[in-house]
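Hi P.,

Sorry for the delay on this. The queue was packed all week, but I finally got your sequence through. Input first:
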Amino acid sequence: MAPESASRPETLAVSISRKKKSIGWDDLIGIRSANVGPKNTGKVAAAIAGGAATSLGLIIFAFCVRGDLLDVDVMAFVAAKLAFSLVVVGLSSVFLTKLARPGGELRSTLALTAVPFIGVMILATLSMAADPNWDEMIRGDQWLDCVVSVPIITIVPFATIMLEVRLASPVDLVRTGALAGLVAGGISVTAYALHCTVDPAPFVALWFGGTSILCMLSGAKLGPRLLRR
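Then the structure:
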């Protein structure tokens, strides 16, 4: 009886091992998505909205909104900057809510998130071609303020978004982290646009676009660490 009873644990271990080996990518996605419902992605959207509200409050009470915002000409430039940043936030948010769900990485075409960056680069190129002092338009007098402020404003939105995305059990952690960083960066740039008094398209393309991409790259780097469950 002893040899037979001793062989049973070995047989059970072999059986379990074979079952583990038989679990493929689709099975893994199915297992993880079974625990994720619409409420999870809804919470991701709520985290994005909460991060946006926090960033806006930070601009209003800490950085201050630019004093000439009610000027008609100024409002046109601010609206153009907001159009760029809001399209970044909108597109990246749509793909983030998809990518946060297991299996979403198979249905997401992230190339569309490049559209607003391409658009602002075209406008910047046209502006530089029409103005010989294009180097001054790029530098402005707030480039350092932009480089420092945008990442600071990004911290709270990024943290809240990553927390909810982690609970949604994403599979592609690098791309999900990158999108979370891009959403947070876009939110930060949107808020900062109400404070920044430099309006030329080359400045917006380089410093607004550049800091958004920096946040995206930071998210891609931190994603595998922060999103793993």
